[in-house]
Amino acid sequence: MFPVCQIIASKSYTDCISPVLDTRSLTFDPDTTHNFLRLMEGNRKAHHGGGWLLSGIICINILILGCALVSGSAFNSVAITAVHRQIFLIILLLLTMLWMLFYTVITSRKDQAVLFKDSHAGPVWLQAGLVLFGLLSFLMDIFKIANYVGYLHCDSAVKVAFPVVQAVFLFVQTYFLWTHAKDCVQLHTNFTRCGLTLTLSTNLVVWMAAVTEESVHQTEIYNLNINMSQKFYRASYGDKKCKCSHSACDTFEEAFYYLYPFNIEYSLFASAMAYVMWKNVGRIVEDHSHHKVKFRPREVCLGPVTGILLVMAGLATFILYEVQILKEDREKTNAALLIHFSVNIVIVSLMSLSTVIGCIVYRLDHREHVSEKNPTRSLDVGLLVGASMGQFLISYFTIVAVVATGARGYLNALNLTWAVLVVLQLGLQNYFIIEGLHREPFHVIQEAALHTNAHALQENTELSAVVDSRRSVYFLASCPDKLSWKRRVLKEVCVFLLFANVILWIMPAFGARPQFDHSIEIYFYQYTMWTAIVNIGLPFGIFYRMHSVASLFEVHLTT
Amino acid sequence: MFPVCQIIASKSYTDCISPVLDTRSLTFDPDTTHNFLRLMEGNRKAHHGGGWLLSGIICINILILGCALVSGSAFNSVAITAVHRQIFLIILLLLTMLWMLFYTVITSRKDQAVLFKDSHAGPVWLQAGLVLFGLLSFLMDIFKIANYVGYLHCDSAVKVAFPVVQAVFLFVQTYFLWTHAKDCVQLHTNFTRCGLTLTLSTNLVVWMAAVTEESVHQTEIYNLNINMSQKFYRASYGDKKCKCSHSACDTFEEAFYYLYPFNIEYSLFASAMAYVMWKNVGRIVEDHSHHKVKFRPREVCLGPVTGILLVMAGLATFILYEVQILKEDREKTNAALLIHFSVNIVIVSLMSLSTVIGCIVYRLDHREHVSEKNPTRSLDVGLLVGASMGQFLISYFTIVAVVATGARGYLNALNLTWAVLVVLQLGLQNYFIIEGLHREPFHVIQEAALHTNAHALQENTELSAVVDSRRSVYFLASCPDKLSWKRRVLKEVCVFLLFANVILWIMPAFGARPQFDHSIEIYFYQYTMWTAIVNIGLPFGIFYRMHSVASLFEVHLTT
Any transmembrane segments, and where (chains A, B) (predicted)? Predict the structure, then answer.
């Protein structure tokens, strides 16, 4: 009885419930009525007590202060050094850990704290990604500690303390998000909201700091390599009085800078999960029985086969590319870029083509759209579109640079083609995925068709006024085991796109940076600006590919 | 009968209707049923046909391409010149005007195009601001044309064409937004959505271009003034072969750069209105009778009096400041800054103090929160919080700069105090306004109290379990003409804050730029970066102050 009462009590104060609950069939007894009133009061406060407002204000303040500190330390390394920034980050990390400890030990142990779990929050790919990138970030911190210990006699101890705190934080946060990502917290809601925005903003500040640090480092390396300015070289490296006390320093430094992108990705993952948790605080999730849709790999054939072939080809050329780029020979680099660009163009063209086919089938397919509101889906779509901005940004900047300089040569032409095709592919894929997520899942239609009687069927046909749909419902009801050609095509497209996104994820995630191996954009935007664009855009692009894979899998299941 | 049917037909396909309509009392006849079905079909397509998705994709693409072009022209003035950027802008402006013409002449003339108007969209302050800033932008374009005509013999004609097109655009857009800002379009929804995002992104690209142009110009002037680098001077000015053919060129150029901030503000206003219109496409607004709340200025006294005094004092010192700054004497400048900082600190402290009082009264006041969802209000709150970021940004960057350099002297101390107080004031004011907008309007409570019977009242008291509220309801019901002290305090605070926001709007809007008259931030962040921050943040800050005034007026009316 109790949970039901609670749902009703909170109904008018939370805007998250999709279906209107039928209250007429319920009776109250005095005991539960008391609880009902208490909870009603509590819930009202939860929703309107300004907790979300306060948490928002905290988030904005930490973020903008972090932004000012990080850019201050990047543009003016005299007054604000890395040490100041790291002290600020250590404070943030400690506060966040304290709150996580409080939540794990006190809030989540209470009886009424977590009555509902959002089954869509913290999906498996996000969790797995978090652990993977968390481990690599941990490795980065170990290398950092080993490196900066060598400078302890002449540099600040904060440089060792920060990676130590961060390493602990990685464990605490990964554990916290692993166990609590699905919680819809109902107790201490105000405090939990503030804690979650603290987590969110801490991760975003860590992200900003990592992006800035990597960009500054890359710019320094670049300036060193081309030996552009002898004066600059002396200023940034030659004047360094502090020498490392052990011999492995250089190796460690190279290693941890190589691992930076994983730490950036980790922060983005954790931010996304903290944001979803924040949205879920105080939310009442209807416990819908979540149809177990069986994944039948045999249903499709062409999609997986071509997809896997694509992944193999991509992997082979990727390894070739990485090997040839390392040789630092102009001719070899150009050959590597030629292969890389060509393969990417082929992949992206095939993807665009199959997405177009999928979109046409959607037009022909008269499946109903889901009419009920679903906050998790809206959030998912928002994250997908938001993350795609990163790749959009890089591609458009490339297009402008190549077109504006009127650059000739096959490499520039390939680069331009690739950028244009990526823009096209991103737009199409976003449309395809969002459209797919908004269609009524097939098994729901099927069940409706099986349980319906002739009268209802006729009514339904009249309502939708589409002759074709009636035919397909009949068809589905009579032979549920065989796929209609439309569903089959959609499933093939989904699986193919899924594999293609996997290979497009692997290449940048494991170190392909044609953006820096090709000089046209560097020449056009100056190195500093181009590094900033790539370092901001690329992690979002990687996140986008992983997110697409998960969404395409969902679309595949419901089609 | 017809419009009612239509509302029901669209009900399940639009998520914008707040109250659930009672359908049981309605009967259908065959004729309307046909229309009902047709409309249902149409509306489903409208909502799910991908129009909003397509319009979003268009918006992202134009924005990012614009971003790439604008930053390309700022960082690399060789390959992409102002002319390329202006050609792109001319195309955008022409396309937007074409769509606006189509909408005004065809869509809006149709019978079923605009069945509903959103009474909250395009409020009077936004309309008035649009016209005011539109006129000043028009003046800017006139000056631009007059200036660039003088260079026609040796410079591109595009530089004249762009302000001409922009001037026409200003008229078309202002007329369009003036007459159609409240429309909830029901016809050609997909096309209208795309048109509105085109309008939105055009305005944002114009905004980006204006901000960049102004920043580059300010940096050039700065470098000229301090004569920092003789080489740079020659590169940017000395090499200019093109001489103006008439003598008034310099005057015109100075004049139109002075008017740039108004054009930036105009673009922001138009963007906000286009965004609200886009959100309203296909929306069904319930025609609620919109209680006419009478504005009774006699109810309050202390707030307006102190507020007007503050405005007078602010105006006097602002004029003094402007006069003294123009003299370009170090000592006079410092004296002017001293006055300006002190007055601002006094204003902001008084505001914070009164907001704290207001927040305490809210805590004591047990007025119900509005439970129904209201998209217009959510949008309003979003715009308010979003716009406040601009001022937050500037203040935090100032705080970091002053603290990090450990700058001494009374001017730095005042600057720091001001920045800290502004952050505090913004947080408090956001909280106060949002809390005020979410409270049940007083007249609604009053009516409920008057029409209620003893039983219902008792029930209500039991439910909310607050003894105080019963007393206040009795009080309100018995003497509705006299204000309770709580309402009176809240009203006084609202009016005071309103006037204080007016003076804080006037000062930056009409040219106070202490950010550039004081050197600490320029020294810390370098001139280029600081100009960018101020030119992005300040227009949002100005927008925020105007928006606050409007919101405070609304809170005042409903309290």
Answer: 52-75, 87-106, 126-146, 158-178, 255-278, 299-321, 341-362, 383-404, 416-434, 493-512, 524-544
Between the CA of residue B315 and those of A214, B447, B548, what are the distances in Å? 48, 42, 19
Alpha carbons B337 and B438: distance in angstroms, whole number:
39
Those residues whose C-beta lies under 8 Å from the C-beta of residue A381, and which sit 6 or more positions away, are A434, A437
CA-based nearest residue to A501, from A355, A316, A361: A355
- Positions of E strands within B1-142: 114-117
Of B13, B406, B430, the CB nearest to A371: B13
Our CA dihedral for A552, A553, A555, A556, rounded to 10 degrees, sits at 120
The C-alpha atoms of residue B373 and residue B370 are separated, in whole angstroms, by 8
Q: Do B61 and A400 touch (CB under 8 A)?
A: no
Q: Which residues of A touch B81 (CB under 8 A)?
A: none
Residue B190 is predicted with a pLDDT of 86
User: If residue B239 lies in a helix (H) or strand (E), which one and from where to where?
Assistant: none
Residues in chain B: 559
- In this prediction, residue A196 carries a pLDDT of 93
pLDDT tens sequence across A340-370 = 999 999 999 999 999 999 989 888 877 777 7
Task: Tell me the H-state helices in B181-229.
Answer: 189-226
d(Cα B90, Cα B482) in Å, to the nearest integer? 59
B chain contacts of residue A385, beta-carbon cutoff 8 Å? 56, 60
- The pLDDT of residue A447 is 57
Cα(B142)–Cα(B167) distance, integer angstroms: 8
Structure tokens given for B515: 């950010």
CA dihedral A32, A37, A43, A46 (to 10 degrees): -130
- The structure tokens 């930076």 sit at A260
Q: How far apart are CA B398 and CA B520, in angstroms?
A: 9
From the list B71, B396, B524, which residue is nearest A79 (CB)? B524
Distance from C-alpha of A227 to C-alpha of A218, rounded to nearest angstrom: 14
Instruction: Name the nearest CA neighbour of B218 among B509, B541, B534, B508.
Output: B534
Alpha-carbon distance of A334 to A325, in angstroms, equals: 9
Token pair of A408 as six digits: 């000739």
- Sequence-distant (6+) residues with CB within 8 A of B356 are B428
Half-sphere exposure of residue B42, counting CA atoms within 13 Å on the CB side? 16
Chain A residues with CB-CB distance to B396 below 8 A: 61, 64-65, 67-68
- CA-derived radius of gyration, chain B: 27
Q: A205, A66 in Cβ contact below 8 A?
A: yes
A163, two tokens: 């990676």
Do the Cβ atoms of B403 and B423 come closer than 8 Å?
Answer: no
Q: Are B104 and B176 in contact (CB under 8 A)?
A: yes
- Tell if the CB–CB gap between A13 and B37 is shorter than 8 Å: no
- Give long-range contacts, CB 8 A cutoff, 24+ apart: B66-69: B66/B92, B66/B201, B66/B204, B66/B205, B66/B208, B66/B209, B67/A393, B67/A396, B67/B208, B68/A393, B68/A396, B68/A397, B68/A399, B68/A400, B69/A400
pLDDT at B94: 95
Q: How many CB atoms lie within 10 A of CB A454?
A: 7
| ipTM higher than threshold 0.85 | no
Low-confidence ranges of chain B (pLDDT < 70): 1-50, 76-77, 226-241, 286-298, 371-373, 442-483
Q: What does the alpha-carbon distance between residue B341 and residue B332 come to, in Å, rounded to a whole number?
A: 14
**The two structure tokens encoding residue A405:** 């300089």
Nearest to A57 among B12, B53, B430 (CB): B430
CB B459 within 8 A of CB B443: no
